[in-house]
Write a sequence for this structure.
C-alpha cells in the first residue's frame, strides 16, 4: 500500500514539474512575442512584461503552496489510515494468539 502511495506521489511530483516547465516556457515565449509584436514603446512594453511576470510569479507561488498543503493533508490522512489499520491488525493478531493459547491449554488438559 505504501509503495502504491509513493508511486502516486512520485507521479504527481513529475506532473507538477512538467507543469512548471510548461509555465516557464510559455512565459518566455509570451514575453518574446510581446516584445516583437507590441505596438507600444520599448519602455512601456518592458513595464507591462515586468508586471505580468510578477503576477505569474505570484500565481505560481500560490499554486506551489496550495499543492504543498494538499500533499501534507494527503500524507496525514494516509498516516492516520495506516495507523488505524495497524491497530486493527495488532488487535486481530492478539485475539488469535489468545485463542491459540487457550486451545493449546485445553488440549494439554485432555
Amino acid at each position: 500500500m505504501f509503495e502504491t502511495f509513493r508511486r502516486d506521489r512520485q507521479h504527481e511530483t513529475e506532473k507538477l514539474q512538467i507543469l512548471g516547465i510548461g509555465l516557464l516556457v510559455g512565459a518566455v515565449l509570451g514575453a518574446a512575442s510581446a516584445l516583437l509584436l507590441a505596438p507600444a514603446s520599448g519602455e512601456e512594453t518592458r513595464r507591462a512584461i515586468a508586471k505580468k511576470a510578477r503576477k505569474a510569479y505570484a500565481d505560481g507561488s500560490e499554486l506551489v503552496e496550495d499543492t504543498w498543503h494538499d500533499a501534507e493533508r494527503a500524507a496525514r490522512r494516509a498516516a492516520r489510515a495506516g495507523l488505524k489499520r495497524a491497530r486493527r491488525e495488532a488487535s486481530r493478531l492478539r485475539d488469535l494468539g489468545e485463542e491459540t493459547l487457550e486451545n493449546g491449554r485445553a488440549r494439554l488438559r485432555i
